[in-house]
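Hey, resending since the last one bounced:
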Amino acid sequence: MTKTNIQQLQIPFESLVEAISALNLEQKQQLWQLLNLELHQSENREYTEAEIKQQIALDSQKQLEELNPEYPIGWSETGDIPKPNETIRFADLPFKVQVGIREGLASAARGELERWEVK
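The structure tokens again:
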């Protein structure tokens, strides 16, 4: 299978699913191999510092928008290890911790985050 010059097309996902359903078994296997190759290349590529920073900013903004009193907080965010099946709600945290989490997420969403390496 040779890679050809492919133009970017805007195809609705539902239409793509219908088209794939119409393929015969051999064509589906070829498509599967192509998708696996593309996924492998995407997973193994090196991301630039700017791409990583942008993704952190987007993820932080989304998390900040979702933050509410019922928002579940993981133990790594509080430094406390909860008991099994224990849920920690954002509202259960001390106010000072809530403010710190909001400020940290807001800072990361603005891109004011520096990465570090563990050696």
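Helices lie at 13-21, 25-44, 49-66, 75-78, 95-109.

Sorry for the duplicate.
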